[in-house]
């Protein structure tokens, strides 16, 4: 009896994975995948590149400030630009990148 249940469960899995199975709208998976929009559109790529540019700017602002003589204190390393503004830009850049990845493109209704 349990052998019949396992065969039935396996057949259901095969039916779910079959390309000819249909969704709620009656389209097969092949038809749906060919007509489905891409995950990324032009706006997503623009946001992604803006986020990357902001990250690069943040890292660029963070570099430098090293002193040649380790016995002399130079306060330039602890400037507001390096310890406040640059990390905020980096976090904002990552936020924009995450938003660009998660944003769904608008679907055109026919």
Describe this structure in words.
By secondary structure, the protein is mainly alpha-helical. The protein folds into two domains: 1-36, no CATH class; 37-110. Helices cover 61% and strands 0% of the residues. The protein has helices spanning 2-17, 29-35, 42-62, 80-102. The chain is elongated.
Write the layout of secondary structure elements.
Blueprint: H1 2-17, H2 29-35, H3 42-62, H4 80-102
Low-confidence stretches: none
Helix percentage? 55-70%
Shape: elongated
Largest sheet: none
**What's the Cα radius of gyration?**
27 Å
Features of the shown structure:
110 residues; 4 helices
Brief write-up:
The chain is an all-alpha fold and 110 residues long. 61% of the residues lie in helices and 0% in strands. The chain folds into two domains: 36 residues, no CATH class; 74 residues.
């Amino acid at each position: 009896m349990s052998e019949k249940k396992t065969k039935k469960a396996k057949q259901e899995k095969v039916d779910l994975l079959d390309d000819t199975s249909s969704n709620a709208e009656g389209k097969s998976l092949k038809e749906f995948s060919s007509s489905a929009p891409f995950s990324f559109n032009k706006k997503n790529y623009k946001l992604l590149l803006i986020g990357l540019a902001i990250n690069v700017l943040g890292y660029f602002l963070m570099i430098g400030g090293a002193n040649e003589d380790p016995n002399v204190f130079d306060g330039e390393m602890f400037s507001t630009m390096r310890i406040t503004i640059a990390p905020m830009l980096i976090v904002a850049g990552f936020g924009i990148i995450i938003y660009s990845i998660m944003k769904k493109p608008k679907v055109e209704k026919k």
